Sequence to fold (323 residues):
Amino acid sequence: MSNTEVHPAELRCGGRLDAARPPAVEVLTARDVPLGGPRAMTVRRTLPQRARTLIGAWCFADHYGPDDVAATGGMDVAPHPHTGLQTVSWLFSGEIEHRDSLGSHAFVRPGELNLMTGGLGICHSEVSTPGTTILHGVQLWVALPGEHRDTARDFQHYAPAPVPLDGGRALVFLGTLAGDTSPVRTFTPLLGAELSVDPGATITLDIDPAFEHGLLVDTGDVRLEDTALRPADLGYLAPGRTALTVANTGPDRARLVLLGGPPFGEEIVMWWNFIGRTHEDIVQARQDWAEGRRFGEVRGYAGDPLPAPELPTVALKPRGNRH
Fold:
């Protein structure tokens, strides 16, 4: 999904492990962002924000729906570019048609991962299919480390099998959790999983103590450790823990997305759909997109590519995590 804000954020952000231990759970609340046009679909954006800009290499998290396609028109994102990142598409309901300049033509369906690697440059389109009535899911980005940020374009699809838990289940789409490991290739260690927790149940999961973690609530009222989280909240846990406990305090099944990875350890500059290391990286990527270089072409989409917004009149300023 494109970051189609009228005034997209620019960030230079870094993750590190402090000697001082932060609060047990840091609660990040989302902000509403309309994605382009008079019938804009509103998303709830939890990353990036001033309080925290990275969780591991996870640098962007949009949470959207349930969106009534009959009322909103659904998703129709024209071809747009990406550099220096991987996009992670994960749906709870609906279906999205994906086309990219690598030549991939695939569908995003509930419980199935589509992971696209931008690297030096890729472009893609995303359109909800005619049979979709309710569109509901998350769009996530992963920053590529410096040694791989100009890697070749790639696309991977994976449908994880459900992993039963005592009081719920997991779908592990990246990394390892609850004895299950995803085969999907990433450039830094990552964890990505959808969790379902039964009403009244409490689940405890072993986690990697080198990772920091974020738990995004889609539905339900839950407690992460001793902290209450409501829908659209993201609870952050610093590295150092070997287990994570989630309790469903509501009457219905809770659905959550668990993200994790070791602190990224690098600074990045992120603006619109580009991730670089300097202001000049972003200027060059924008110019290449405007002049039809580097990103290739999406075939099969009926419409023009998205134009890039205007850059700010001053150099992109550094912003970092608050510790």
